[in-house]
Structure formats: C-alpha cells, structure tokens
Amino acid sequence: MSYIQKLSSAVFVSAMLCTGVRAQEDPHRFDPPWNTPPKSAVEFTIPGINNVPDLYGDIENPQLVVFFAGNQFMCLDDLLEGFKKKHPEIKRIFAETLPPGILAKQIEGGSLTIGNLRITHKPDVYTAGEGRISSMKDHFNRIETYAYNELSLMVPEGNPKGINALKDLMQANVRVSMPNPAWEGIGRQIESSYKKAGGDALHQAIMKKKVEDGSTYLTRIHHRESPLRILLGNSDVAPVWTSEVVYQKMIGHPVQRVVIPEQENTRASYLAGKLKNAPHPEVAEQFMDYLTSDEAKAIYRKYGFETDQ
After folding, report:
1. Which residues contact 239 (CB under 8 A, 6 or more apart)?
2. CB neighbours (10 Å) of residue 125?
3. Which residue, 209, 129, 128, 214, is CA-closest to 177?
4. Which H helix or E strand runs over 130?
5. Between the CA of residue 304 and those of 75, 225, 297, what are the distances in Å?
6. 151-196 per-position pLDDT tens digit
7. pTM for this one?
8. Across-strand partners of 241?
9. I need a labelling partner for 169 at 20 to 30 A (CA). Which of 78, 211, 253, 289 fits?
C-alpha cells in the first residue's frame, strides 16, 4: 500500500471514529416526539429547532379538542385511534399535552403561544388531577374519574449513583430533576412524599438547599425535561409518575425504575371534565364515554397507569 493510500485510509478511519463520537454525544439523540407523528405530504421535524411534541393532530377545523394533563402523552396514539374507530365520522382531532396548570391558564385566558404559533381553540374536554378539576368545577357539566398513578424514581440504566430511596436525593453528589410545584401539580405530590419519607429536613434539603446550589433542577414541563435530563446525563434521578418510567423503557430508552414504598408514595386520581361551553358538545360526550370505557382503561394500564376494573 502506498503512502498516499495509507494516509487516506488513516484519515477515513479517523473521520469515522470522530463521526461515531459526535453521534454518541448528539444532544438531540433522545429528542421527542416519542409518539408516532401523523402522516403528511411534507415531514419537517428538525431536532432542536422545529419540534413541538405536545401539540397533536389537526389544528385546523377540529371536530374535537382535548386538553390532556401532560404526562398522559404516551396514551394518545392508542386513545385517539380507538376513539376514531368507534366514531369513524370523526376525522379531525386536536389535542394538547402540556402541564395541567398551563392548560388551566389557557382555558381562563383563551389563548396560548408556543414559538410563533398562537392557539385560540377552546377545549371540549380537559383532564387533570383531582385537585385541579375540583378547583375548576364550575367550568364543567360532567366530571369522570378514569385512571390513577403513583410516584417512582427514574434513574439511568444501571443506577450508577445507587439510589434506593427518597432520602438518597438529599446527598450532595446526587443531581435531582424536580417538577416545579409552581407550574406542575406533580411537584406538590412529590413534596408530600418527601415529607413522608424524611420530614421537613428532607424537603428543605432538596427544595431549598439543593435548588440554591444547583443540584436540584426545577423543570417547567417534567414529562419532557426529566427523562431527557436522565438520558443525557444531566441529572442522576427524577421523581416521576410510574407510567413515565414504564413508557421510556417501552421505547427502549436506557432508564430504570426505583420503587417508592407505599407509605411514602402519593397516588393521583385523573379526572376528565366536559366544558360547559364545549364547541363540540355531542362529540365531547362521546369522548367522555370512551375515556371511561373498558377499552380506554386497558390502554391506560398498558402504559403503567392504574384503573378501576
């Protein structure tokens, strides 16, 4: 082999190795959408630039608009497909899976802007935790309970920090991804569990001291941020709903679950409310019926939620 050939070969191997390293370090390698996007004539999702994972379906002239509490995003493909099969006349559905507090503000204010997109759709159905629905009960003319969830800890596969309990989150070398209670209802549920597990000392350590020193990161949209922080090595542990760990493992992402014992855990109830001013009241009633059906409950159980049998 000539010198030029050897040099060319070495450059090629070096380039391949560098490309492999860059691929491994690609900060967008785990980016959502984790659901299956709808088919279109032009597909133009660009990781890190044009990617809106919490808006679903047909935004133009929808026949049904549903605002889902964000951590239910993994159920939407199956739910919306199942509903459409039962009601084939319904072709166009628009759904959002943002934090329930943000959705509540959108309902009250009448609009939401993401990037350059302004949305003014009124929802037919809104789903959230029991506390949020109760506080907004005057908005609804029908309320149904349809699923439950409990807390777990999400850690990287192999659990490199050896985290086995909520008390481990107060350690100085443990970086926590924590939902901000100011924005997300799950944050208050987790705070309750901290107090059950270690009283005010544990709560203050994680939510005050570690926030101040930067080892607790407060999310704005935990069902997207927390898994990504674990997958990219930016956090060591994230308190999440159990369904979120189940789903990340289901799609092959390298995470694992640490169980929080029942006496320290917090169980959430998910309720759906049909808006009194629903733009599509008949379809909204049909969707409420479907959400409480055996078929829909089986979908929720598939993704790690609990339901009444």
Report:
1. 151, 152, 153, 154, 166, 169, 176, 178, 179, 186, 190, 193, 260
2. 25
3. 214
4. helix 130-135
5. 10, 19, 11
6. 999 999 999 999 999 999 999 999 999 999 987 889 999 999 999 9
7. 0.90
8. 151
9. 253
